[in-house]
Write a structure and sequence with these properties.
346 residues, Neuraminidase, Immunoglobulin-like, 4-stranded antiparallel β-sheet
């Protein structure tokens, strides 16, 4: 009887650790721990294997924007800004800003400053988080006339870049000293911009709901290109995070509660081109094991040999999960090519 009770307790403990993201809005990369955090409604999850498994990050709470800075994870949880120790997940401090409408996006300068958007209040706040136990705030700017969403801090130009919600949404810049607002993109042609992050090379990635895509912009937002579409698993893509060391963008897809990972490294920098890769079916997904970073090209055909889907993406070394591209009621072949290797799955 004692053994049965112990077994039940063990199973309950394992079930508590193995989690599936639900009601997600934001994703954030921790470079020191080489792991990803995702907001989970009333909790906060973490993965060290790019989403194959998730577990609770202590008792932390995150419903919206998150930032890793100076050994702490800062997270917005239902209009409360909390700081958690990255090593222990212990709460280090919290801040409530009176009268806010809906705190949503967050960026940081790496030196103690957080910049946070108030979606409903059409305002931007600056939070001094040099001491997480004694955070303070000031209003950086207000009355934007738009609903500000995702935020990233551009330290080189001493500005916060803010993407906005709505049809043909704008992209704004806010001076971190004066609070002056300028328009970087006056009508992006995209609807409901949600997340933004930079790749460390002067380029910025923006998620939009209409069309469902990730758009990459040049430093001054004068040039743009679509780099990820809905075919890559996007669904109402919300907050995003660019992992500089991996050249990989993590996207929190609020439409399907799935975090997708998209590589943007330079394949020419990888010399081990002859090393093979492995791929196998895993239910409604495919698991791709990459020994080195390389471009992977996918083509799906129906039973009559007609092409259904094409997809190309650079994947760094590691294991990746792609959705099975052929609808469940159809038969066909999926072919993946990387370097000189070709794999086929049915």
């Amino acid at each position: 009887m004692r053994f049965v009770f112990a077994l039940i307790s063990l199973c309950a403990g394992l079930a508590a650790q193995a989690q599936t993201p639900n009601n997600i809005e934001a994703v954030e990369y921790d470079p020191d721990g080489n792991r990803w955090f995702v907001s989970n409604g009333s909790s906060l999850l973490v993965t060290e294997d790019q989403g194959q498994t998730w577990s609770f990050f202590g008792e932390a709470v995150a419903s919206h924007g998150m930032e890793v800075m100076n050994g702490a994870l800062y997270a917005i949880g239902n209009n409360v800004i909390r700081a958690y120790d990255l090593a222990s997940a212990e709460l280090m401090g919290s801040l409530v800003i009176p009268g806010v409408g809906f705190l949503n996006g967050m960026g940081n300068d790496g030196a103690g400053l957080l910049v946070i958007s108030d979606f409903q209040g059409s305002r931007i706040f600056a939070v001094n988080a040099t001491n997480p136990a004694e955070m303070s705030y000031s209003q950086l700017t207000g009355n934007l006339g738009e609903a500000p969403n995702g935020v990233v801090v551009d330290t080189d130009n001493n500005r916060a870049i803010v993407v906005c919600w709505g049809n043909n949404a704008d992209i704004l810049a806010v001076d971190l000293e004066s609070g002056d607002v300028s328009t970087l993109v006056d009508g992006s042609g995209l609807g409901n911009l949600d997340g933004i992050d930079g790749d460390g090379n002067g380029q910025y990635y923006v998620s939009s709901w209409s069309p469902t895509r990730i758009t990459r912009y040049s430093e001054e937002f004068s040039v743009s290109e679509t780099v990820v579409t809905g075919a890559a698993g996007l669904s109402s893509p919300a907050d995003i995070s660019y992992a500089l060391g991996l050249d990989t963008l993590g996207v929190a897809n609020s439409g399907n509660d799935n975090v997708t990972f998209h590589g943007f490294g330079d394949p020419a920098s990888n010399v081990a081109e002859t090393l093979g890769f492995d791929v196998r079916r895993a239910g409604n997904d495919m698991l791709i094991d990459m020994p080195v970073g390389r471009m992977v090209h996918l083509t799906a055909f129906d039973a009559a040999g007609r092409m259904l889907v094409q997809r190309s993406e650079f994947l760094p070394s590691g294991q990746f999960r792609w959705p099975w591209p052929i609808e469940g009621h159809m038969t066909g072949v999926v072919q993946l090519r990387s370097g000189g290797d070709v794999k086929s799955l049915r």
